[in-house]
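ARCHIVE CARD
Drawer: 12
Card no.: 0347
Subject: one protein chain, sequence and derived structure
Cross-reference: see card 0346
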Amino acid sequence: MKKLDRDLGLVSIIAIAIGSMIGGGIFILPGLAAKYTGASLWLAYLISGCLIIPAALSQSEMATAMPKAGGVYVFVDRSMGPMFGTIAGIGTWLAMMLKASFALVGIGTYLSVFSSLPIIPVALVLLCGIAVLNIFGVKKVGKAQIVVVVLCLISLAALSIRGTGQLDMSHFQQAFPNGGMGLLSATGLVFISYAGVTKIASVAEEIKQPERNLPLAMLISLFLMMALYSFVSFVLVGVLPLKGSTAALSLAGNERPIALLAQHLYGNAGAISISVIAAIALASMANAGLLAASRYPLAMSRDAMIPSIFNMISERYVTPIFSIFFTAACMAVVILFLPVVKIAKLASGMQVMLFMAINVAIIIFRESHPQWYTPKFRSPLYPFIQVFGIVGSLILLAMLGLFVLVGTACLMLTGVLWYFYYARHKTRRRGALQKVRSKPKTLGQEEQEERHEEVIPAEMVIPLTEGEVSPESLLELGSAFGVQKISVVHLIELPDQTFLSAVAPEENAHQKALQRRLQLMSERMGLQSNIDFLLSHDRRHALYDYTKQSGATWCLIEFGRKNTFRQMRRSLGWLTSHLPCNLAIYRNEGIRVTQKILVLAEPGPEDKYQIDISNKVAELYDAEITLLSVLPENAERGQLISYRDYHDKLTHLCTTQRVQSQILQGNSITSVIEESISYDLLIIGFPHGQQADAYLHTEHDQIFERAACSVLSLKHPHPKLLSQNLVMQQESEQTRQLSELFDARTIRLQLDVKNKAELFDELSQIFSKVTDISDELLKEEFDWRERQDNTAWDNGVALPHATVEGLTRPYIGVFLLKNPILFDKESEQETDIVVCTINSVTERSSHLRLHTEITKLFSQTEFTGALKAANDTDEVLRLLRTS
């Protein structure tokens, strides 16, 4: 089953909306609009923005009820029926196509500032270029658009701030040279400047929390652009004369007003610089316009309103190739035969009509009460704000002139004729308006199409991207994690040019075969598994959302051989630090039988996961486990002792009897790679802190990439993302300061024992009283640890220790012997200071840290001398806590 991913957050959709608005609306239209309204140009922009608000609120409400690709077309179609939907679909496509054509013509006007290139041929060449980009599905164009938007905002802000110091208030004396009619005409002309604000509703199915983010994004971006447009146009009027000595020096009627302002403020260099920025911005706007316009034929073709050829998706590039080609061809006709003012007026007229239809549509939905219409956001001030929007749209449409009225009438006539002669016989769908008199009924098939499938709960998610060596081996490995419910999700990333819902939901032959194989594997291993096919524009966010909704505790990803592990961490980026579950990354070397497992034992948050998974994998494959640690060549004996003890603790956690321990000294990367030659699977942790920097090639990265066997890297989530129970479990292993652990009850001076056996008897009795652990058990643990490795150390110090179940904190005792005893018969080394630690089996990392600090402290001859010279327990305790 295919699912659509929601991967757009609030910041992303604000950026999309602003990027769709900035362009010709500020770089070209101010001069054309100033011809109608003069010094009140800024007011025209302000009024136009206010008239957009009703449509923005209405569209936000409908988008949360119908989060489907198609925007205005879908809303009008579902409210008024397919005939009006046809008109809206064609009208939306025309408005976006005209806006993109307008931007391409504007590029030529700005290039003429510093070149003699012909405007129309330049526009046509650029049109061919952006058409190719859209057909190939170049995603990086979308990222470049963000840079362009930021550059434009900075440039316009710089010009406006500089211009405020050169305002000539006499330019505002005649605010309305053509009266109210001129102001309204200008308002209608610049209306298209804000058209992009509702573009995000056409991708509502890809937006996170649409009930919150859609209205917020629309209003925030709209108010920001209203402020920018009004401020810039105010500065334009205040600095530039409406009618200068020549037409080229006049604001009124000028097709490149921003370049004229830059020349006035910064000279020729400023004019050329802003012209280059404007050309880039207009090209970006044209690209975005073609991308958006080509989506509407897709949505209409999906509903059988236009021929199915418009729904043709390129198998290679996964883009609507015919829809893009057809839209580009129509743009070429517009560029060749319509002047820039006509294009702008017609685009604004189409947009005014569409926004009026949006306000009508929400009234129909509210009053007809369809059962399936349950928006998560509701427009405030209903129906007054919608009525205001409708009346304002009618006034603006009338003020745009006869050419626009005729064009709008032709659009409506074309839509009606097309519906009756083609589409009416291909759809049985009815709008809410046609169902007003119908009896209420249960949720039908048509309404069910508006709902999204829920993600099935799972304990593990395994994402596939078609680069895996064997999906079956991933499923088999996943079963070793002790889970029963596994979801395998095939992540399919589409280019921005393609609606997610435009791709056919049926699985192809390869996907069906994969589903069959995985189902057989699940049955053989006694697992409950399902496979989903998730469409998205960003695999990372798709995986995050899917994993979060499934409630999985593990996510198992196979490492792609095409990239390095560092590159993979970079590509996953944000996901690795925010995924709300444990993460396992697997490098499959194609080893069919796993008999020997090598575990890189490193103190840290992953070690218990490593041991736990190692136990389960070893049980699955009946394999043996070897614990490996690599210390520097110059590691001190105390560090070696600490790591031996650490390995002992890990060994206690291993459920299999076939466990070995190995501590090497040398280069960690070389040593691990050499050892991996003799093993089938290497299990390691994950880089943390600075080591996790995606731009650093860490030791983990090199080991993961170069090991001679398959590798499994494990990472647990950030504590803030864990459940409260798991947080509490982790907090039980918090490290404590060494000085806080010394206790007068476990300090003895002049302890009189004759040998090691008597010493352990005394230690067991002392610690039994403090810990409530039986002295027999403590004595048994001391003896067992001593048999593994003698704990005598340098400088007359011995470090015996024991690990027991049930302790909530570590305990340390310091004992000064009355007479030295022989602790190590082989070396004949005598001991007169004994530092004993008692710790929980689960406190591995903190115990290793404490052991290391103890050896560092007691290696100081001056310190041990001061201890021996102490007169009482208080003096010993003071020395221990202050050193």
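Annotation on reverse: The chain has three domains: 12-420, 460-725, 736-882. The first helix runs from residue 10 to 21.
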